[in-house]
Amino acid sequence: MAITLSTIIERKRDEVAELIRTTSLEEVRSKAEAQDRPRNFFAAVVNSHTKCSTSVIAEVKHKSPSAGVIREDFDPVAIAKCYEKHGAAAISCLTDHAFFGGCLDYLTQIRQSVALPVLRKDFIIDEFQIWESRAAGADAILLIAEVLSEGQLIDFMILAQKLGMTTLVEAHDMGNLLKVQQYIGFPHTGYSLLGINNRNLETMKTDLNHTIRMIDVVEDTSIVVSESGISVPEDLEKLRLHGVHAVLVGESLMRQPDPGKALGTLIRMNPA
Question: What is the mean pLDDT of the chain?
C-alpha cells in the first residue's frame, strides 16, 4: 500500500498523543527556555546568496517513503559537517523515525557539531512538538499547510517566533499557497520563509516546474524556498530566472558517494 501524507499524519497523531501522555510539558518547556538563543535561520537563507547564486538548505535524510533507504552508511553528523564545509547556508534534519529513519537526537548532535542553523524537518501538528524542537536545539521548524488549519498555523508561528525560531511554512497546492502567503512575516518580519514543495505528498512525485508555475502568485520571491526535485546546477539557474534564490535539497545529495562534494558541485564551488 502506498504511503501518503494522510498515512504519515495518522501515524504522527498517535505518536504525539503518546508523547504528550508520557512526557512532562513543563520539563520540556524548562529545557527549551534554558537553551541559548536560536541561530538566525531566516538570515542565513535570505542573505547568503548574491544575484547570481543560490542559498542551499542541505538535508540530512536516511530514507523516505518513496525511495526507501537512501544511504546505508548514514552518519548524520559527518554529513552535516561536509555540508557546512562545502557551502550550505543551513542544515535540514529529518526527525520523523517511522517513515524517514530520523530522530530528534540527530538534530541535537548536528546542532552541537556545526555553526550553521538547523531546521527540524518533521510533521508538526501540536504545540508540544514546537517546545520539544527548541529543547532539542532546533533553530527553525517546518509547518506544512496541507496538515494545519489557519488557526493552528497562526498559533504555531506565534509560538515559534516567541522562542526565536524561524518557520518554514510549506505549501504544495495553489489553494494552500494562497492561504499561507498572507501570514508570512507574521507576527514579525524576519521569522518566516515560504516553502513551495515540488513533491506531491499524496503521490510522492516531484516536478521542479511546480515552483515556477506557482511563483506568479507570490508577492515576495526573496523569502521563497523551492523544495525537492533539485539535482543539478541548471535547476538552480532555472529557479533564479524566476526570482527564487533559496532551495532545500536532500535526496540527490544523500545518494552521492560524498554528499558534501556533491553540494559543492551543485552550487559550483571548488571542493575544499
Answer: 93
